[in-house]
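Sanity check. The docking grid for adenosine-5'-diphosphate depends on where the pocket ends up, so I'm generating a full predicted complex first rather than guessing from homology. Inputs follow.
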Amino acid sequence: MIEKNYILALDQGTTSTRAIIFDDSGSQIITYQKELKQIFPQLDWVEQDPEDIWNATVEVIRKTLSDCADLGLKVNTIGITNQRETTVLWDKKTGEPIYNAIVWQDQRTSKACENLSNSDNEKLVSKKTGLTINPYFSASKISWILDNVSGARKNAEAGRLAFGTIDSFLLWRLTDDKVHLTDATNASRTLLFNIHNQKWDEDLLSLWRIPVSILPEVRDSTSFFGTTKSGLFDCQIKINSMVGDQQAAAIGQACIKYGAIKATYGTGCFLLMNTGEKPKISKKGLLTTLAYRINGKPTYSIEGSIFSAGATIQWLRDGLKLIGSASESEELAKSISSNKGIYIVPAFTGLGAPYWNSVARGAIFGLTLETGRAEIARASLEAVTYQSYDIIKAMEDDLGQPLQSLQIDGGMTENDWFVQYLSNILSIKVARPRILETTALGAAFLAGLDSGLYSKLEDIENLRKKDRLFYPSIDETERLKLLADWKDAVQKLTMFKPLQNKNLNKE
Ligand code: ADP
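Predicted complex below; grid placement will be based on this.
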């Protein structure tokens, strides 16, 4: 009998932390997951407790390893994938975070970003990072912590603090509390990393007033990052990949060829299109970012994001208490035959690509006395498909040709009604893998690649299971009418000036 090899993927997402064991043929063997508490200290602020993230990480890894031991399976390597941009600063001596993790959705620095956002700075940032000045990326969050936590700036300048996205923070703790590394995909989301020469950039560091000493060293996404420290788990395991979650999903979906595109519908939705070895600059407000870096060779992608995708469904469940579970949104959407003129623009934290409007806030259009739960649930799901259309259109313009199909994954794509509607609105074939854990699969694959279980990037194509395909079935006139109504709703929303945040906070 041929012995199988096993890989542990740690997927530290925005709403949960998961450990998944894959065998070397890409089959998912064991999964443990722990929900992550979100902290909302003020309007527009979103934090998480780094100790919660750490404890959940240890718990899910221990459980999976214990099941592996019971089944006699030996885990060869670990791959880490993580929510990107979320920012932690910790004391290098004690390993204690000096503030909560500031989550990518957090908008507290929107004023600071607005102040820096003149045309010279925007040009500089866009040329070097492929990004735009926006609170969503790590740099302004780091500056905020340095300016607002007592003694932080002084300690940072004295070399006593470390900054990391979640990959770095977990690596520090998983190894022997002195390994300070990240990978190029995570670095490319900080606003401090030059994606052309693959180095932290002095001009950007001085723009954000961040001392270079707090930054991790940047490695390939496939690298030997360290070995888990002795005593933490029953055995010590090598860590052979770290990669941002969206990039991991693109790999898990085998988007390794020029023009291949995937969309992950989790808390937010992220669409990535592989653009090969040269960075392509979008003319349509999309971002240029690293897809992966292997053997020192960067591959680039264009990215568009919807800030609130599954988060809108979470809001229906936890905020409005309109549904008992996320899956109930499907039953409700199915129960009516049209949207009855209701459009929701879920700009809870502003609008992402291609609008990049951080002051806009959400709205519901077309309310009547007949509007009920079904209409609101359906409009919420529809909104995510219209926003996807806006981004795909921009990607097609950048690519100069229409897209043929879209690979999808993420929690929201369990909803069949949503996926069919997405195919209708995009008017293209949508492919959903049978295993939705493509993010974890991508991280596991990269760890396997680095540790020699696979020989080349193309091997990922053999690990993927067959997709379920959804084809468009909608009248073209109706589709165009829905898109025109959506466009109208977004335009009306951007004309509305919400109250200044500081006034709202006083209440
Ligand atoms: P993340 O990795 O960002 O934590 P996941 O990929 O785990 O996100 O997806 C979770 C999100 O998907 C939640 O925001 C949830 O509201 C949404 N979701 C889960 N199931 C469904 C469903 N059946 N219909 C619509 N949304 C769903």
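Relevant for the grid: The mean pLDDT is 93.
Also worth noting: The longest strand covers residues 297-306.
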